[in-house]
Amino acid sequence: MISKYQFMQQNVERRAAGLREKLPEMKKSLDTVKFLIAQQNSPKPSADQETHEEDLDELDDLEIEDTQDDGLLETTYPLQDTLYGHATIDTHNLDSVYLWLGANVMVAYPLLEASEMLSDKLGKAKESLKQAEEDLEFIRIQNTTLEVAVARVHNWDVGEKRKLKERGQLKDSKDVEQ
Fold first, then answer.
1. Is the pTM of this model over 0.90?
2. C-alpha dihedral over 139, 141, 142, 145, to 10 degrees?
3. HEC sequence for the chain
C-alpha cells in the first residue's frame, strides 16, 4: 500500500513539475500577443512619439530592438535554447499570429482569438497546478499516516512476541526482534 502512495506521489510531482515548466512560456506567449494587440490598436505613431518602454520590459525573452515610425517592429526571438531568429513585424497590418500547439503542430490564429485561447490555457494550467499541489499534499499526509500505522502495528507485534517469550510460550529467538 505504501508503494502505491509513493508511485502516485511521483506521478503527481512529475505532472506538477511539467506544469511549472510550461507556465512561464505560456505567460510569455500571452504577453507577446497582448503587446501585438496593443501595438495594432495604437494610432500610427508620428515622428515625435516614442516606443512605450514599459510595454517592452514585460517581454524578457523577446528582444524588441526598435519600433520605427512606420509601425515596423524589429525583434530577435528564440527558436531553440541557443538559436535565435530576427524578424521585422508590421504591427499595424498584423492580423494573425502562429502558435505552436505541440506535437509539431502550428496554427494561425487571429490576434484576439489567440489572446483568448492563451488566456484560457494559462488559467487551466494554473488551476491544474493548484489541483496537483493539493493532491500532492493529500498523498503526503496519507503516506505519513500509513507509515505511522505500519510502524505501530510492527511495534505492537514485537511487544507481543516479547511477552510470549517471557511467559515461555515462544521458543525460537529468531521470532523476537531486539
1. no
2. 160
3. CHHHHHHHHHHHHHHHHHHHHHHHHHHHHHHHHHHHHHHHHCCCCCCCCCCCHHHHHCCCCCEEEEECCCCEEEEEEECCCCCEEEEEEECCCCCEEEEEEECCEEEEEEHHHHHHHHHHHHHHHHHHHHHHHHHHHHHHHHHHHHHHHHHHHHHHHHHHHHHHHHHCCCCCHHHCCC
Return the exposure string of 41-54: e unless at least 16 CB atoms fall within 10 Å of the residue's CB, then b: eeeebeeeeeeeee
Cell 505567460 found at: 27
Q: Give me the domains of the chain, ranges plus CATH numbers.
A: 2-137 (1.10.287.370)
User: In terms of Cα–Cα distance, which of 98, 102, 127, 120 is closest to 33?
Assistant: 98
Look at residues 178, 138, 134, 139 and name the one whose alpha carbon lies nearest to residue 159.
Answer: 178
pLDDT in tens, 4-31: 999 999 999 999 999 999 999 999 999 9
pLDDT digits (tens, 9 = 90+) for 21-80: 999 999 999 999 999 898 887 766 554 444 444 555 555 555 555 555 577 888 898 888
Pick from 140, 149, 130: nearest CA to 10:
140
State the amino acid at position 154 in one-letter form: H
Looking at this protein, which amino acid is placed at residue 123?
G
